[in-house]
Specification:
The chain is an all-alpha fold. It is about 80% helix and about 5% strand. The strands form two sheets. A two-stranded antiparallel sheet has the order 1-4. The protein has a two-stranded antiparallel ribbon with strand order 2-3. The two termini are about 35 Å apart.
Length: about 325
């Protein structure tokens, strides 16, 4: 039964991404937005709603006396690393990804700046209500600044395309299908892995860790296959900024969030290192070449192997 659910989940992911991309492209043309902005704003926020829901649920449990801070911080950093390392590396092997230099500087600064801010707030071992508010405020400013660049273009008529409401409906339905089937795919894959005798460490680090990035993975691959390379990159950049700031900030607003020193000393610096490598590659020739994408993917694999080894040893 789990194998059947896994197949259904994968089929749902494919169908959902097809609907999502069609709605996103149509909406972008209607609103006069670039495909990169659509990826950063619409697709990234939509695909990251599960992480936000997990963070809010964990924050409520913390408020009731539970201890779920590691779930929030771990999933936020793990998802960010999965997106900027595994997903971007994999997509980069499929196509030559390019971005203008000014875009790289602006959004690269947002990536590293948001991570630095989280590290500063977590340095004393906790993220407070005020610090959570600052994280959400910084993300809001980032979003407003991005959208202000497209102000004044307005809604444009598009002959032969989807109507505005149909475009938005396609987008909403597609994202809902992707998020729901990603959860179905991960849960059924975990059950199949355990049925095959794989260890819990493998399940937790490989399947669940990558599973949190499954919506971004499927959307980014679908965008690249349809030739919308910058939408794919925008989705990953937007998702990484969102995951770094919003889930941690939202959970801290509900209850003080403990920040594990181990994550501060390993996950945060490693994520910063991988991000810096990616930005260097993009700036080097204003694009990510396939061999460079292979390096980025290898860096994520090294992380997965290290975490797996540590889990087995302990």
């Amino acid at each position: 039964m789990d194998i059947v659910l896994l197949i259904l989940g994968l089929a749902g992911l494919w169908f959902g991404t097809e609907v999502t991309i069609r709605g996103a492209i149509s909406a972008a043309k209607r609103f006069g937005l670039s495909e990169f902005v659509v990826g950063v704003v619409i697709l990234s926020i939509g695909s990251d709603l599960p992480e936000l829901a997990i963070a809010i649920d964990a924050g409520i449990k913390n408020l009731a006396g539970g201890s779920y801070s590691d779930v929030v911080v771990g999933s936020a950093l793990g998802s960010s690393l999965g997106q900027i390392g595994f997903v971007l590396g994999l997509v980069g092997l499929m196509a030559y990804l390019t971005l203008p230099r000014d875009v790289i500087y602006r959004h690269g600064g947002a990536l590293l700046g948001s991570l630095l801010l989280v590290a500063m707030f977590g340095y004393d071992g906790a993220v407070t209500f005020t610090e959570g508010m600052v994280l959400l405020l910084v993300y809001s400013v980032y979003l407003i600044a991005l959208l202000s660049q497209t102000e004044g273009r307005g809604v444009t008529e598009q002959a032969g395309g989807l109507s505005l409401w149909r475009s938005l409906a396609y987008l909403a339905v597609g994202l809902t299908i992707v998020v729901a089937t990603a959860e179905l795919t991960v849960s059924s894959a975990v059950n199949v892995a355990r049925m095959l005798g794989l260890s819990d460490a493998v399940v937790a680090i490989i399947l669940i860790g990558l599973g949190s990035s499954l919506p971004e993975l499927t959307i980014s691959i679908a965008a690249v296959l349809k030739g919308y390379h910058r939408m794919s990159v925008g989705n990953l950049i937007g998702s990484t900024v969102f995951d770094t700031l919003v889930p941690i900030g939202a959970a801290a607003l509900i209850a003080p969030l403990a920040f594990d020193v181990g994550m501060l000393h390993f996950e945060v610096p490693y994520l910063a290192f991988v991000t810096a490598v990616v930005l260097f590659f993009f700036l080097h020739r204003q694009g990510l070449q396939r061999w460079e994408a292979a390096v980025v993917l290898a860096l994520y694999c090294i992380y997965a192997v290290v975490k797996l080894t540590v889990s087995v040893v302990h």
